[in-house]
Amino acid sequence: MLGGFETPLESSLRVGISGVSGQVESYHKLRAPHARCYIRGTPERFSMPTEESNDPLPARAPGLAARRVALGVSGGIAAYKAVEVLRGLQRAGCDVRVGMTKRACEFVTPLTFRALSGSHVVVDDYAPDNPDPIAHITFSQTVELFVVAPATANLIAKFACGVADDFLTSTYLASNAPVLIAPAMNTTMLLHPATQRNLARLRADGVRIVEPDAGEMACGTVGPGRLSDPGLIVAAALDMLRGISGSATVEGRGRDLAGEHVLVTTGATREELDPVRFISNHSSGRMGFAVAEAAHSRGASVTVVAGATSAPAPGGVRVIRALSAESMRDAVLGEVGSATVFVAAAAVADYRPAARAAEKIKKFDSSLTLSLEPTPDILAEVSRDRREGLLVIGFAAETERVVENAREKLRRKNLDAVVANDLTQDGAGFDTETNVITLLTRDREEPAALPLMSKLDAAHRILDEVVRLRRSGSQKERRK
Ligand code: CTP
Question: Would the pTM count as exceeding 0.90?
Answer without folding.
Answer: no
